[in-house]
Amino acid sequence: MAKKGLILMNLGSPASTKVSDVRKYLREFLMDEKVLDLPYLGRFMLVNCIIAPFRAPKSAEAYRSIWTKDGSPLITLTKDLKAALDGMVPESIEIVMRYGHPSPEEAYNNLLKNNPDLEEVTLFPLYPHYAMSSYETAVDYMVKKYKEGNYPFKLKNIPAYFDNEFYINALANTIKPYLNQDYDKILFSYHGVPERHIHKGHAEFNPELPANTICSGECPLTFKCYRAQVRKTTKLVVEKLGIPEGKWEQTFQSRLGRDPWLQPYTAERLETLPKEGVKKLLVVSPAFVSDCLETLEEIGIQGRESFMHAGGESFEAIPCLNVSPDWIQAMVQIKETAESI
Ligand SMILES: C=CC1=C(C)c2cc3[nH]c(cc4nc(cc5[nH]c(cc1n2)c(C)c5CCC(=O)O)C(CCC(=O)O)=C4C)c(C)c3C=C
Ligand SMILES: [Fe+2]
Ligand SMILES: [Fe+2]
């Protein structure tokens, strides 16, 4: 029995592709104040009266297009990751989802049940970059449930690993074979966040920086600024692979609502690139460790369709790290960067 535990943390998916399950998932997700940062009443009205009812049928259809016989790709791939790591590390491993199941209590209790002498548990966010709406909400939720449960073990957490050499190496090795083919450009498409979230981070972590500073991505707050972190990941991968200037671009996807999000928007660039002569496109999504709705459907299906419709000739969506051996090796190394909470 292990004295140490490791919890792989991902976002979560609906329980099924039924509209009612998707609606329930969207409600839980979007009622999170770190995702929709509005006062409670405004958030409640917006989510329950507008977003969940209208979005759920469309999202359910999107989920249906990627659902497998084992369920949601995001959850299946997180389970596969656990299976691939089992035995590679001394820790006993569980997975947890920020929304849905397994919940934090389920993960902590399973670890304890199988390892009554458990002394220490490390949280491994499957988010390489720090965003209030992904990494921060997941870790804060785990810490809250840990405190509430009065668990007997110590808790550790892994800092964002956007520039970790092993993560960059795994990412570069995933992309490399695709660069051998004839391509005009590779798009680094990251999940977007509202501009407002970046300003909040600046104000919180460096009050001397004017709250509305539009950081260039070379922000001094790299340790907590999502925009700076994704820029760094792109830069390191581009350098490592020697991708020439003009052959790559960075964009942001999955915008929700009308507020300004980080730009340029992937959806817009997919429509304009062919008109600029970019006909053969590769797309990689480094903010996601495991393939999910946002990579398989938004990029792989919708994105391809809009690029080809706009005059593109070939479109290749590069898979996420998933269970690639380089990524498993990277996780073994990254786990060692854990810090006490
Ligand atoms: C990189 C990590 C993620 C960040 C940052 C993030 C921010 C963010 N997301 C929404 C709204 C939605 N995201 C949805 C799906 C989704 N988001 C992430 C990751 C990040 N989100 C993943 C991995 C997934 C896929 C989940 C799956 O089951 O495969 C959805 C649900 C689907 C849909 O209806 O489009 C919503 C809604 C906001 C508003 C936000 C930042 C404020
Ligand atoms: Fe999202
Ligand atoms: Fe910044």
From TrEMBL:
- List residues binding Fe(2+): 191, 294
Instruction: Please give the pathway this protein is involved in.
Output: Porphyrin-containing compound metabolism; protoheme biosynthesis; protoheme from protoporphyrin-IX: step 1/1
GO terms in the biological process aspect are:
heme biosynthetic process
Whether Cytoplasm counts among this entry's keywords is yes
Matching InterPro entries: Ferrochelatase, Ferrochelatase_C, Ferrochelatase_N
Where, subcellularly, is it found? Cytoplasm
Q: What class of enzyme is it?
A: lyase
Q: From the UniProt record, which GO molecular function terms apply? A: ferrochelatase activity; metal ion binding
Please report a single Pfam family linked to this protein: Ferrochelatase
Enzyme Commission numbers on file: 4.98.1.1
Which purpose does this protein serve, as stated in its record?
Answer: Catalyzes the ferrous insertion into protoporphyrin IX.
- Report the family membership: Belongs to the ferrochelatase family.
Q: What is this protein called?
A: Ferrochelatase
Gene name, please? hemH
